[in-house]
Amino acid sequence: MSDSAAELTTHEQVHQRRIDKKVNYQVSATDKVITVVIYTMFSIFAFICVYPFYSIIINTISANDISARGDVVFLPKHIHFQNYLDVFKIPGLGNAALVSLGRTVIGTALTVIASAFLGFMFTQEDMWGRKFWYRFTVITMFFSAGIIPWYLTMRSLHLTNNFLAYILPTIVAPFFIILVKTFVESTPKELQQAASIDGAGTMTIFFRVMLPICKPILATVAIFAAVDQWNSFQDTLLLVTDSKLYSLQFILYNYINQASSLSTMVNLQNAGSTAMASLATKQTTTSIRMTVTIIVVAPILLIYPIFQRFFVKGIMIGAVKG
Amino acid sequence: MQTQPYRTRSISIRKFLYILPFMILLGVFAYYPLYGWVYAFYDYMPPIPLSKSPYVGFKWFHSLVENRVKIDQLLQVIKNTFGMSGLNLLFSWLPMIFAIFLTEIKAVRFRKFIQTVTTLPNFISWVLVYSLAFSMFSSEGIVNGLLKQLGIIDSPILFLQSSHHVWLTMWMWTTWKALGWSAILYIAAIMGIDDSLYEAAHVDGATRMQVIRHVVLPSMLPTYFVLLMLQIASFLNNGLEQYFVFQNAFNKDSIQVLDLYVYNLAMGGGSYSVSVAISMLKSAISVVLLFSVNGLSKLLRGESIV
Q1: Whose CB among A159, A160, B91, B259 lies 3.0–4.6 Å from A154's, allowing a Cys bridge?
Q2: How far apart are CA B232 and CA A101, in angstroms?
Q3: Which top CATH class is A93-244?
Q4: What top-level branch of life does the organism fall under (chain A) (predicted)?
Q5: B1 pLDDT more than 50
Q6: CATH 1.10.3720.10: which residues of chain A?
Q7: Closest CA to A80 of A96, A101, A66, A100
Q8: What is the ipTM of this complex?
């Protein structure tokens, strides 16, 4: 792990040097104008990228009546967290969170293991039909039967309203396999040879030698796979009608289209249990929808800044063709 | 000496057996759905199973063009597909320009901040994008609220229900989501440029724009070419999610791309067989496109992209 960190710093140093060289132009008046234009344009685009998230967050923690008037623009007003307590009174939301969490944890674990194993096995030159099976795997990135044929065959396999439908199709992921294979090929062959001479079998070499070495690339794969699982919406849309198996993404989509009835329901519950909710914490269509949005996006917002370098690394290795 | 080849062979087979379960999974989830294409040749009406459905040959393929109304509908869908894929293709150079100018920023922290922030939207789902869009642009959304506060408008502007400029707004959302992320490959290409090229350019007294024009841009063209070819190959595959979530009664005519049309036909209208027929044609054309651009790449660069 410390090795990869060191490697990253040197990479970054090289990058910085390259950028310094690239930007080492003759400073003229036009150059200064260009600099100002560049900084302005990027600042505007960055603002457009971030503001939707920011504005929804401050609206969910502001008094709901002020928020509904459109008064919350840059800073939250009359901060409260009642919205976040209230949305969990909506039946099904807690369950959907469990489904999303479950598929993310289980799906990611299996995808990482399978990608690591297959990425490693496809480097084993003495495997029967290695080239054929590698092509058999990679080529699936370039064609698809189509959504409806896929749906019809999934149904014939009884994978509708079945939690396995979230997991099984994602286990073998060609892109991740390419990432791991490229990584394994960059490690010295002597490691495997030495272990083999010591009498280690394929499985021992994989678990004892390769798996520890592959940690950095597997972290990248894990992050990608987890984001994919968390964001997945289409499989629920096509294959699931049982509300017990709804994912958070799917439930959010439903809420956007029917939040008004939900806000009435939450308000009724509140009226029954405690004193009449004040205007500031009374749920509106908008407050419910925004709060659920933040709950669904929160895991991404939290992990993204921490793992950003893994994402970047992943796409760069992926760019070196497998 | 006799046992040695046998032993090697048995190891080789055993290694294959280790990956066999995974190859079966791949067979089931990536190859077996191709079998679903047979539905295009039957008059399939659920819940009657396929085995009891009558074989109708190419009836559904003919039915796509059997009368004016159907032809018009299909043409509209194809027009939408071409319009939206075309817009994306037309602006496919944007990530390259983004990368060039991003690496013109000297201040490390500012550049890192911009890169982090602009790649973020790539990691949220289309449902979330739609939810953000709804919160910002619906009739009770933040933008309308702000405009009303400022007294610019009296009644809310219906951004999302509009049937105008749908292609353009869809392109804008795609760009918002993907621009920063797509630039990363080009940033990598820029980082791969040899220092000596810059030094030579500076010795020759090149200006900032001349360095970009004569050093940076040429070294990014190979990357651009490959990505452009892949984009052309997937011209018909707009995907379903983005158009599905943004779809409503008002913009349906101009938002239905092939993927969404196929979905609506089957899941909305129950016309599975017709929808599979269109899927088949689409996949066939996509494969032809892929082979064409691959051939083109071999011809122009002597290197295949797939």
Answers
A1: A159
A2: 36
A3: mainly alpha
A4: Bacteria
A5: no
A6: 93-244
A7: A66
A8: 0.86
